[in-house]
What does this fold into?
Amino acid sequence: MLLFCSIFVFGQKNEFSLIEIDSTWGQEVLRFPARNMNYEGVGEVRFPPEGWRDVNHKNFWTYTYAWEINLDRTITAKEVAENLEKYFNSLNRIEMDATTDTRFASASVHKTSSKNSTTYFKGSVKTYDRFATNKNITLHVLVESFLCEKEKKTIILFKFSPKEFEHEVWQTTLKEISLYTNLCKD
It folds into this structure.
């Protein structure tokens, strides 16, 4: 009986596994509400196994992030940009009213397409790198937002890199990253 229960429990994908990715990638799990963000839900951040803090490595500041939040409508490009600013300001411990701080994040995001319950966005975020260079950095971002209507939630996948979209890191590493397919029961 104990063996059966342990197989059942450990064989299941838990709420913290949103991103289908190689197990060598590091993982951080966050709960919402988070600083300056009032959504309820979970977030999963995944970092490549090497090079994230190395400015000379192709994986420098390249990572992915997914949110499963209590948003029961399609998110807009403006909201995605505002949320990215809040996220990066929180990451850098910058107060939202500190707009004159040169480390204050700014994001520009536009909708590129939509299909069924999925909306796609593309953009960039200017933020501060307090982890490696202690300088301002621009990250390019691709965003996929999945509205799960029956469950009244939204799952958002972010892919970040300072490399231009034509760089190999986008064409290989980031292109292969996706969410688990059964997250929406719709």
Remarks:
- The longest strand covers residues 135-148.
- Residues 27-179 form a domain with the Protein Transport Mog1p; Chain A fold (CATH 3.40.1000).
- Residues 1-15 have pLDDT under 50 and may be disordered.
- Residues 25 and 49 are 5 Å apart (CA to CA).
